[in-house]
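Progress note, project year one: complex with TUI.
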Amino acid sequence: MKTRVTELLGIEYPIIQGGMAWVAEYNLAAAVSEAGGLGIIGAGGAPDEFVREQIQKTKAATKKPFGVNIMLMNPEADRIAQVIVEEGVKVVTTGAGNPGKYMAMWKEAGVRVIPVVASVAMAKLMVRSGADAVIAEGMESGGHIGSATTMTLVPQVADAVDVPVIAAGGIGDGRGFAAAMMLGAQAVQMGTRFVVAKESVVHPAYKEKIIRAKDIDSEITGMSTGHPVRQIRNQMTREYLKLEKAGASFEELEHITLGALRKAVVDGDTVNGTLMAGQIAGLVSKEQTCKEMIEEIMSEAETCLENGRSFC
Ligand code: TUI
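Model obtained:
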């Protein structure tokens, strides 16, 4: 399927993998790229040299295009932004902030810059700064989220900017893919479905939590701290929300989440860990290879788009 995004990035299918901290390491990124999508290394809170290593490992595993996601709250973001240029990475996505200060450097190096935005205002600002496309991410997503839903955000961003829009949040199958295209997107970004991929190094207990999750099994922690994070309900979210309701301080709340994503991803601690996942976890029901996932989604989407005139 050809869209403005497949042309921009030189990929086969308009499916981008979310740049999930701890989860999106080189095995997953290379598998998604090899399957014809765009694999992304999630720099998360990692140090710059770790990210450089991940880039080199991805290059060794695939000759196809891949990208790096910079989480802008990472204190090492400046150095990672530099590593991207030094390593000749072709695509960068950004999250949780404004990448404006890196834009000139990246554009000069020929890097395609695709910021995640959670509002029309942010999308317009990013395009004025030189973004090649934007990812409009709804609050159905896992992890750090904004407040608009995918259904409302994508068409409004698509109307507001001339660059291609990539829809994210709540997309996990071919129906979601087709719906996103109808809303004006030229590609989708998926996170939760790829967490359970065979090539994903996430602990089996975390994958199992996603596979068993139902539609309303996620919670948003951190509404009061200005850092809302969607994750699967567990003992950790129950404690967090109780403290948050009681007016606990930012420091107290941060203390609970410190290292909690690592606990979930690496140790498989589903009790105290942060099981970041989107609302679509309820639909994610099996572990498959990235290739199987992408081929299944594209085939379902084609059926949806072809049958789009009959609703009986
Ligand atoms: O960034 C994400 N999702 C994330 S980052 C993350 S890191 C982490 N958090 C807690 C514990 C451990 C690790 C987890 N999930 N998605 C992209 C995204 N960006 N969603 C929303 C935004 C966003 C929000 C506001 C982007 C820009 C923005 O603008 C604010 C500004 O600076 O003007």
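Residues 91 and 112 are 5 Å apart (CA to CA).
The chain has 14 helices and eleven strands.
No further modelling is planned for this target in the current period.
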